[in-house]
Amino acid sequence: MEPLKVIIVDDEYLIRNLLRMRIDWQQQGMQIVGEASDAAEALEQIDLLHPDIVFTDIYMPKMDGIELSGLILERYPSVKIVVVTGHNEFEYARQSVKLGIFDFILKPIRATELLEVTSKLRAAIEQERGREYELTKLRGR
């Protein structure tokens, strides 16, 4: 299977860099194909690069990560979204679940947590693709 494509969205360069450097993405079967510092830039990159996974901050200028996630999932329902936030509040978790966000990670970002989430992401995507492949095979008969 080709590496899963990842886009990181955060208005803070240091956080984007930390996410990029925290783990060996290639070893996880993933490749960071883009970064964005705001929601508008993220949407452009998503339309262009068609990622499998988006990591997004909640608090960003103009449009927050929850609203961005809603727009992404409206356009690309198969994209998996992980919200990265420094806010451990129930309301964000509730909104995330309602939208269909895959998971969320609290700052400060720990490598072990990031590895756990990326492993779950890869397994979920592989399982979905396996089902799609089987359905295609069945329809072809």
Would you write up a description of this structure?
β1, α1 and β2 form a beta-alpha-beta unit. The protein is globular, with a radius of gyration of 15 Å. α2 packs parallel to α3 and α3 runs parallel beside α4. It is of the alpha/beta class and about 140 residues long. It contains 5 helices and 5 strands; from the N terminus they run βαβαβαβαβα. Strands 2-1-3-4-5 form a 5-stranded parallel β-sheet, with helices on both faces. It has a single domain, classed as Rossmann fold, CATH 3.40.50.2300.
Overall number of structural domains = 1
CATH architecture: 3-Layer(aba) Sandwich
Q: Tell how many strands the DSSP assignment holds.
A: 5
- Poorly predicted ranges (pLDDT <50, ≥5 residues)? none
What would you give as the CATH superfamily? Response regulator
Termini separation: 24 Å
Mean pLDDT: 92
Structural class: alpha/beta
Question: What level of helicity do the residues show?
Answer: 40-55%
Radius of gyration: 15 Å
Q: What is the fold-level CATH name, i.e. the topology?
A: Rossmann fold
Shape: globular
What CATH first level would be assigned?
A: Alpha Beta
Strand content: 15-25%
**Biggest sheet features:** 5 strands, parallel
User: How are the strands ordered across the major sheet?
Assistant: 2-1-3-4-5
Tally the helices. Answer: 5
> Topology as H/E string?
EHEHEHEHEH
